[in-house]
Structure formats: C-alpha cells, structure tokens
Amino acid sequence: MRMINKSSGVDILQCDDIDIIRNILIDSICDNFKLMEEYGFFLIKCDRNNTPLLTPQEWLKLRNK
Questions:
Q1: 21-24 — which CB contacts under 8 Å span 24+ positions?
Q2: I need a labelling partner for 51 at 20 to 30 A (CA). Which of 7, 15, 31, 57 fits?
Q3: Phi (first) and psi of residue 8, to 5 degrees
Q4: Which residues, including other chains, have CB under 8 Å from residue 32's CB and lie 6 or more apart?
C-alpha cells in the first residue's frame, strides 16, 4: 500500500526521514487550520446577514466551485 503526499510526492509509508514526515504533518495541520478559520468567518457572515448556515460539506462544495 502506498500513501503519497499530494504536495510533495513523498510516499509517507516508505519515508524514513523524520524531518520530511514532520514537515508534511505541520503543513497538513496549517492547511486544516486555515480551512476551519475560513469556515468560521463564513458562518459569522451568514449569521450577520440572517442567511441559512451551511454544513462544512455544503460550504466546501461552494468554495471549490
């Protein structure tokens, strides 16, 4: 089985370099934090405009269009 990191192209399961694995993990955490922050601001904007609140899945579909 192979798990390839999309941004670096590294096979995570075969990689023995701890620094590479650590950097991949940190990048993933930062990306997820930015997404959560963006979704939070979207929810605040929806609440202020009295529009329906979207689930994260619905929001991601709109965001990726």
A1: none
A2: 31
A3: -105, -20
A4: none
- Positive or negative: CA dihedral 61, 34, 56, 52: negative
Which class for 42: exposed (0-12), middle (13-18), buried (19 or more C-beta within 10 A)? Answer: middle
∠ CA 50-43-48 to the nearest 5 degrees?
35
pTM (2 d.p.): 0.73
Q: In the chain, where are the structural domains located?
A: 18-63
Residue 21, token pair as written in the block: 């694995």
Q: Residues 13-62: pLDDT tens digits?
A: 888 888 988 999 999 999 999 999 999 999 999 999 999 999 999 999 99
Q: What share of the chain is helix, strand, coil (3-state, %, to 5)?
A: 60, 5, 35
